[in-house]
Amino acid sequence: MSAPSATIIEGQFSPKLKAYYFLQGAWPLVVTVVGILLLPLWAIFGTWWAGRYYASLKMELTDRSVIICKGVWFRQELTIPLDKIQDISVREGPLLSMLGLLGLRIETAGQRNAATGSSEADLIGLMNAREMRDRILAMRDAQVQTSAHATSPAASSPELLCEIRDVLLRIETKLDARKTS
User: Phi first, then psi: what are they for 12, rounded to 5°?
Assistant: First the structure.
């Protein structure tokens, strides 16, 4: 049994993220007639929700994976093994730029929802997002390189390869003997 992974880096999120979530929820209300009537309710509820969501955010980088926790009513913990990460992109948009925030999207094979274009591993408001991206990718590359060396046939001993060859020759000899009898 392997030892549990130790946290190497714990990601920090910008306090401006609360304003981002509040404004993101208020925007559809502002542009619709019915929504304008609901805006006072959002001012109360949205402020509470944005604060709770911000408090629930957690990101840890371990020696084996990225762990992301989030959610107010429905808590979600997503563990992404480093060797499964295909790409990490940094995104900016008008609202993010206005608040000085960046989004970090971690993508793995088959994870992205083609219908919505969303990814469950979106880290909006992560402080030092570009440095975190570089650190995660460097750790992924190191882990993939280490595991490739450990499992590659070139890393196997010549004695083991000779033993495998000899076993295959014995199997082949027995199969030939069955054919002739």
Answer: -110, 140
Cα 160 to Cα 130, 146, 147, 153: the distances in Å are 45, 21, 19, 10
Q: Which residue from 134, 132, 123 is spatially nearest to 101, judged by alpha carbons?
A: 123
- Pair 14, 51: CB distance under 8 Å: no
As a whole number, mean pLDDT of residues 46-73 equals 91
Q: Mean pLDDT lowest for which of 2-16, 66-80, 159-173?
A: 2-16
Q: How far apart are the first and last CA of the chain?
A: 48
pLDDT tens for 117-151 read 545 688 899 999 999 999 999 988 888 777 666 65
For residue 11, the SS3 value is strand
Cα(131)–Cα(143) distance, integer angstroms: 18
Task: Single out the residue of 134, 137, 125, 102 nearest to residue 18, CA to CA.
Answer: 125
